[in-house]
Amino acid sequence: MIKKEMIAMLLAGGQGSRLGILTSKVAKPAVAFGGKYRIIDFPLSNCINSGVDTVGVLTQYQPLRLNTHIGIGIPWDLDRNIGGVTVLPPYEKIESTEWYTGTANAIFQNIEYMDGYNPEYVLILSGDHIYKMDYEAMLDFHKANNADVTIAVMPVPWEEASRFGIMITDDEKKIVDFEEKPAKPRSNLASMGIYIFNWKTLREALMKNADQPHLDFGKHVIPYCKNNDYPLYAYEFNGYWKDVGTLHSYWEANMELIDIVPEFNLYEEYWKIYTKSDALPPQYFSEDSEVERSIIGEGTEVYGKVYNSVIGCNVVIGAGTVVRDSIIMNDTKIGHGGELNKVIIAENVTVGDRVKMGIGEEKDNETDPHIYNHGLCTVGEKSVIPNDVTIGKNVCVGGVTTLEDYPDLYLPSGRTMIKAGE
Questions:
Q1: pTM of the predicted model as reported, rounded to 2 decimal places
Q2: Which of 46, 73, 94, 154 has CB atoms 3.0–4.6 Å from 78's, for a disulfide?
């Protein structure tokens, strides 16, 4: 029988609804990041850099691009005869068939997959965080403490602690209590949603709680382990970690990559981030172009001016167009003579000539102010924006739009315009 010391289960089925139109057609872990990567590249690269060579990726929402991106795992050296990467969507069973209804339910539905490797330990990961972490060091900590469950935590500012699951520990980092989003936190150690379980303990906790609706780690599995006196420990992580769950945090994390001394360094030799790369020509910069403090992906042609921005692969930026503080994803074409300020443009978008975006006063978005805010202007994938229009801030545009959609060639701040078919 195959035996692996530790396998990883990567939860990548989430819709990421707070990313708005960016995730209307694609799972959050497959959203482009940093010019050439996708969000899921970070936990996958952490696995192979940490010596974890067996990874189950649990998909559900809009999985096509994620499946295509992962393929058989070649970029991460996860194309193995034994182990490697396996995509695990929900599937039909004889007795009952259901979607993954909670984080732990998704793991429960794949018990047979995990049993096949008879692991000592199972590492549970989320597919939507940006960070570098050595899971081997966490496993060493888990073993040293004879823990049944180790939860990765990181200190957060006290004033933000009420937004997280908080672990209360003793001097040995043993977890004595935990609170979900407490009004008055007793600790500032926030759970990162990264767990190492002894497989026997996890299996028992899943089987005993299988009938819980929306079976969840924080609500059911961890409390079960605690109530049965299994030793739980908190592994403190002090590196860079970003949950890119909102448009603003996604924009911020991209902008932090282009700091003069980036807090999160993509250029380290010893901890590479791997991704599926297409064979693209090099970047081209015309003699009139200007680029300052930006990341420019392969195959991109710049005829205009780009400042403080993250530009994906195979993008064209027309002559005389000025792009500032923006994220433009792969295969997008931007016409000439335009002005783009603090925009997020998804993949395969066509922006006409002389288009101005992110212009004017800020105004709350009319449909989803909790999603479209901080002055960002967001355009969904495969959208078309015609020539000569001006678009405000806190705006969302999706679909093939025409001049008729812009009275006076203008879409004011705070508007949402999603055309049919989106």
A1: 0.89
A2: 73
